[in-house]
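Please decode residue identities from the backbone states below.
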């Protein structure tokens, strides 16, 4: 490789530096997955098959089975989870949230976020280590595949067999097959298993866009698990960073007992004249070798720690073998580790549940009082009002009507007050909607000028469906400040278009 001289920085040797040489040598790894020269440090974590690993494995396989089976189940004839983004309909546990349910969905989302805050404050990054699909699939699906091809089944660590040639391609093929399956499972949450089944059994040319989405998603998934790996947690995942921020000194974390472990050194501690010669850490480095993110937990709480508890299992084995007390690395919290008074209770553990109670209560109240249909009045584009030839003030509106049920229903509209006002559906007095259908129904609401005060006339409309359920809508009609009959000549000049529109509407109705 050719090199060229660069300007000598202050303090550099008289020989100067060459391109490709470091100006400053780092004293330690800046990032766990970077070599000193900035290249990727590939991790081959060893496997510590302790109690936490067994428990995590059971949880992981239960979750994998759950994620896979869930879209195939039916709740009241609907999938338990179906996130139909193009139609903006989200089905959760048999209930379909429609685009008009913004408030319900917002309350659900806020409740979800507050729950995450609460769980993190209590149990730290338990989600990252035990429940996140990235961890679950990486550690319990793809690493076992790696270990199979690398000849390290049951142990992990550096590959015993070189992963090149046919071995690399065979592993890539297995990754591709597994990722294709995972992508189809993932897509089922967005399109449903029925539509997915059609797409899978028909030619890709009949469904080129879904096929393209599936192919690109599969390739991205293969890239993630075969190449990006722990970088997803360290660099890409905002959730991991959020969780780190949400921890406090009394949150449950995986931590190393400095007071007990330091000063570390090889061999068991010896007590001479009541003084220990060293701490309990025998500096075997087992906790580092098993870490899937390549960090040393003895350096304290780190953003990279996904709380997988592999280091706990590894250190536990070491301590047992040396007949020393276990728990040098354990689940605890920062205050306990520093022997500070520690209570579970702190302000956030009161604030979060209170906020959660409020948002969930509001959700339940709105959810339980929901009618079988949604109705909302909106003003039409164009003029605010027009004056009909008979002198009525017409407001051209549109009724946003949604049938929330699975069955067709018919709806009728009437004006409750004032008595002299009337509603005139432009096409038909009865509106029919299919199950789940939404429609904008153009209507004309008219009232005589005497009902207007300062150009405003409050009206109450009633919408009833054929099951007898009704909704009352309050609305303000807009009109002129002066009686149009007294200034009919002026009106011709002021509102020529509106007057004409009104005549047209009347004609179409008759
Ligand atoms: S430090 Fe321990 S708990 Fe944290 S990621 Fe590494 S092995 Fe898992
Ligand atoms: S596994 Fe335990 S004893 Fe070994 S280096 Fe880590 S903390 Fe020290």
């Amino acid at each position: 490789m050719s090199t060229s001289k660069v300007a000598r920085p202050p303090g550099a040797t008289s020989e100067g530096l060459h391109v490709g040489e470091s100006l400053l040598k780092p004293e330690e790894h800046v990032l766990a997955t970077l070599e000193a020269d900035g290249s990727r440090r590939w991790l081959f974590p060893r496997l510590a098959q302790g109690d936490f690993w067994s428990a995590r494995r059971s949880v992981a396989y239960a979750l994998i089975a759950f994620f896979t089976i869930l879209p195939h189940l039916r709740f009241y004839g609907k999938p338990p989870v179906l996130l139909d983004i193009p139609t903006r309909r989200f089905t959760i546990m048999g209930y379909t949230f429609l685009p008009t349910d913004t408030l319900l969905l917002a309350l659900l989302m806020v409740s979800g976020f507050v729950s995450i805050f609460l769980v993190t404050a209590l149990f730290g990054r338990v989600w990252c280590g035990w429940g996140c699909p990235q961890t679950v699939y990486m550690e319990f699906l793809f690493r076992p595949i790696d270990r199979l091809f690398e000849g390290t089944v049951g142990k992990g660590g550096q590959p015993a067999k070189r992963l090149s040639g046919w071995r690399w391609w065979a592993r890539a093929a297995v990754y591709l097959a597994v990722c294709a399956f995972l992508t189809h499972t993932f897509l089922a949450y967005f399109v449903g298993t029925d539509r997915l089944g059609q797409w899978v059994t028909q030619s890709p040319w009949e469904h080129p866009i879904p096929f393209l989405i599936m192919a690109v998603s599969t390739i991205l998934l293969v890239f993630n698990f075969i190449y990006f790996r722990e970088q997803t947690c360290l660099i890409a995942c905002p959730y991991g960073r959020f969780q780190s921020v949400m921890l406090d000194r009394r949150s449950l974390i995986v931590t190393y007992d400095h007071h007990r472990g330091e000063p570390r050194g090889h061999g068991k501690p010896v007590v001479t004249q009541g003084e220990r010669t060293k701490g309990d850490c025998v500096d075997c480095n087992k906790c580092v070798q098993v870490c899937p993110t390549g960090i040393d937990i003895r350096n304290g709480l780190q953003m990279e720690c996904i709380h997988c508890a592999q280091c706990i299992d590894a250190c536990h084995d070491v301590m047992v073998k040396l007949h020393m007390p276990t728990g040098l690395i354990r689940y605890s919290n920062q205050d306990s580790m520093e022997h500070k008074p520690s209570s579970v209770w702190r302000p956030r553990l009161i604030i979060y549940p209170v906020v959660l109670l409020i948002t969930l209560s509001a959700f339940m109240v709105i959810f339980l009082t929901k009618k079988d249909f949604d109705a909302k009045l909106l003003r039409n584009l164009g003029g605010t009002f027009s004056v009909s030839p008979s002198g009525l003030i017409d407001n051209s509106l549109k009724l946003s009507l949604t049938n929330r049920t699975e069955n067709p229903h018919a709806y009728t509209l009437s004006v409750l007050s004032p008595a002299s006002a009337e509603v005139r559906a432009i096409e038909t007095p009865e509106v029919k909607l299919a199950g789940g259908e939404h429609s904008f129904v153009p209507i004309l609401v008219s009232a005589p000028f005497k009902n207007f005060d300062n150009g405003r006339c409050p009206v109450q409309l009633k919408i009833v469906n054929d099951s007898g359920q009704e909704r009352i809508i309050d609305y303000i009609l807009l009109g002129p400040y002066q009686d149009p009959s007294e200034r009919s000549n002026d009106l011709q000049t002021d509102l020529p278009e509106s007057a004409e529109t009104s005549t047209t509407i009347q004609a179409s109705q008759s």
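Observation: Residues 1-17, 491-510 have pLDDT under 50 and may be disordered.
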